[in-house]
Structures are given as structure tokens and as C-alpha cells.
Amino acid sequence: MPFSELQKELAERAAQGLLRARRTLNTPQSPHIVVDGKSYLAFCSNDYLGLANHPQLVAALQQGAAQWGVGAGAAHLVSGHFEPHHLLEQQLATFVGKPSALIFSTGYMANLGVVQALVGRGDTVFADKLNHASLNDAMTLSRAEVKRYRHGDMEQLARLLEQTKSGRKLIITDAVFSMDGDIAPLREMLALCEQHDAWLYVDDAHGFGVLGERGRGSLAHFGIESSRIIYMATLGKAAGVSGAFVAAEQVVIDTLINHANSYVYTTATPPALSSALLQSLQLIEEGDERRAHLKLLVARLRSGLTGLPWILMESDTAIQPLLIGDNQRALELSAALRERGIWVAAIRPPTVPQGTARLRITLSAEHGEADVGRLIGALHELAC
Q1: How far from the centroid of its chain's Cα atoms is residue 163's Cα?
Q2: Per annotation, catalytic residue among 76, 206, 293, 367
Q3: pLDDT of residue 163
């Protein structure tokens, strides 16, 4: 039976410290959760502003379900595009300073659809080697030629662009890299786009709601805008709900509506989610205190983790990776923290490069200073 081969592959992954498994939450998302019946202080959620269980979002979702039902029933292009979808797209476009926007069911689906719709055979995609898996899959799906550059290496990117003489050119990048927490040099990337007549596709999954004036994201953080930029952000992280959107020039959005398969051929998201997201967008815009508190927590953590035998990677964002190196050691540290009632995920290859297994510490505006202090104390205790 071929199942024996599958079992052997899983056993090999387990021996290498790479086997993945799920855990079940028994409570809503929060820094203080119950997992498989045990209470934990959690530092592994992307709920950066603490909105996933916000009472105003819960109420908006309930009201949206009462008014619009619990399912869209069809694709957007058939009969599944509801008024809340339309209003959300308008407000998202305005919020990030783009002419138009289009909502997708997930960020993964958005990335697949955008890249596949905009480039193909005869075109070239330029990609950071640490881009998210969804962007890597999108490149493959597009059938365009792929040229990857070393993480953040603008000199290599410039050389690759210079060598490309024909076809459409699309640079794709994470804005905030999900496993490293650093921010792409978007200003320099835009300058290269202008020099070489390229588009820039920015995946701001981990910057939207957190960075920039009033949480408008990584473009606002750098103070840049251009018709060359196609902007994507997810709505299940800082926004606290679900889904994603792409914002760009109207001609780009019209192209996606007609050619992005992951938009055209899928059922629309429940309109009640858009009702909740309209409320979320308001909370993000009014969330300066949350963002200021989050920044304070980042500084507290970074100062408190000095002197450890592991490397705290450079990051000013809510993602604070503690580089361990060895897969098994990262798993052991994660398990030791769990024994102390603290949940921090161990991230291993292929999610990160070989030899760079890490604890991915993520902070939320709902954490308190005492929560961060508890994590700092536990890590110092384990380092002894």
C-alpha cells in the first residue's frame, strides 16, 4: 500500500525534528488561552492589536449575520457580491490611499490570483528568497521566469533587473517578513521599479494595522505611493477577522476581476465578515494607543532578553524571533516553556532556512508588561 510510504516520510520528518501537529484552543484568541485543557500565556498569535475577540467586532459580526445571513451562496461574479463587500472594498481603498480594492478569501488566495493574473510566459518575477510560501507558489503558478535575490539585497536585484530586457517585470516581496520580523526596503525597491519600468507587489500581511500613520501599513510607514505599487494585506491578523484585499489602480483591479482565478472561481466570503471588518477598520484607525503600547512591549522584550545564549534577531516589529539553530533544541525550548505555562512556537525548516530554527515570539497589544516580564524570566531560567 502506498500509505506505508507516507508513514515512512512522516517518521523521517519526526526524526529530524520537523513533524508538525495541531493543538486545539478551548477559548477565544487572546494572550491568555486554554489549549487542550491547559492554561497558557501565549506569544504565538498574529492578533497584533488584540482585536480577534473584541466585543465591538463580535457585535458587528452578529448583526451582520442577522441582516445578511451566514453564507454568500455564490462567487462574487455570479450573485455573491453583497453591499457589505462593496462598502468594505471602498473603505479599504481609501484607507490605504489607492483608487480601488478587491477582497479575497485569504492572503494565500490573493497572492496566487494576483501574480497569475498579471504575469505569465515571457514575463519575469523578481523575488526575495525569504518571501512567504504563498508568493513562491504564486510564482510557480504564473509560469513566468523567476529570478530570486538574496534577502534584502538591492544590489543583486538591480543587476537582475538590468539583465532582463523584455516582457513584464514584477517584483514581489513581503513588507514585514513573517519569520524574521524585518521590513523590506520598499523605498529602494520602488526606485528600482521606476528605473526599470517594473511593478512592485507588496504583501503587507504583517504590517497592515500596525505600521504607519493610523495603522495604514508599510507604504505609509515609508511615506511612499506610486501607481506601480500593487498592495495586498490580510484581514485575519491585526484586523482580527478573516480574508485579504488587494488595492491598486482601477485597471489592475479590473484585470484581477477578469483573470485572477482564485477570485473568479471561488464562493465569496460571508458578507457578515465584511460587516465585522468595517468595524475593525474603524478600530484600527483609532488604535494609536494600542500601537504605542505594542511598541513599548517590543522595547521591553528586547531589553529584557539581552545576555541570552541565543540570538534575538533584529526587528522593530511585533515579530521577535529568537534564533536557536538546531531543530531539536528549538523544540525542547518550546516544550520547556509550555511546561511553565508559556506557549511560544518553534519554527523549523522548510518554513525557515536550514540551521535557523527559532522561537517566533509575537506580541499583541493585549499583552501586559507583566506578561512580557514572565516570558523574559522563563527564558533566562532556561538559559542557565
Answers
A1: 31
A2: 206
A3: 96
Which residues partner with 75 through β-bridges? 267
Q: 100, 134, 142, 178: which is the annotated catalytic residue?
A: 178
Active site (annotated) includes residue 295: no
Maximum CA extent, the chain: 62
CA 299, CA 262: separation in Å to the nearest integer?
Answer: 40
What is the DSSP secondary-structure string of 177-221? -TTT--B--HHHHHHHHHHHT-EEEEE-TTTTTTSSGGG--HHHH
The pLDDT score that the predictor gives to residue 147 is: 98
d(CA 165, CA 145): 13
- The secondary structure element, H or E, covering residue 321 is strand 319-325
Q: Is 81 a catalytic residue?
A: no
Instruction: Count CB atoms within 10 A of the CB of residue 113.
Output: 26
Q: How many CB atoms lie within 10 A of CB 136?
A: 16
Q: Nearest 10 degrees: CA dihedral of 370, 373, 374, 380?
A: -170
Contact of 208 with 232, CB cutoff 8 Å:
no
132, 237, 293, 367: the active-site residue: 237
- Nearest Cα to Cα of residue 198 among 225, 164, 221, 224: 164
How many Cα atoms are found within 13 Å in the side-chain-facing hemisphere of 53?
11
For residue 93 the three cell numbers come to 481603498
Tell me, yes or no, if 237 is annotated catalytic.
Answer: yes
The model's pLDDT over 56-100, given as tens digits with 9 standing for 90+, comes to: 999 999 999 999 999 999 999 999 999 999 999 999 999 999 999
Residue 1: the pLDDT is 60
Q: Tell me, what DSSP letter sits at residue 275?
A: H
For the chain, 384 residues long, the average pLDDT of each consecutive 10-residue run is 87 87 92 95 97 98 98 97 98 98 98 98 97 96 97 98 96 97 98 98 98 98 98 98 98 98 97 98 98 98 96 96 95 96 95 94 98 98 92
CA dihedral 231, 234, 235, 236 (to 10 degrees): -170
Burial class (CB in 10 A: 0-12, 13-18, 19+), 121: exposed
By C-alpha distance, which of 262, 292, 294 is closest to 50?
294
Opening angle at CA 46, ends 215 and 48, nearest 5: 40
Domains of the chain, start order: 24-49+288-383 (3.90.1150.10), 55-285 (3.40.640.10)
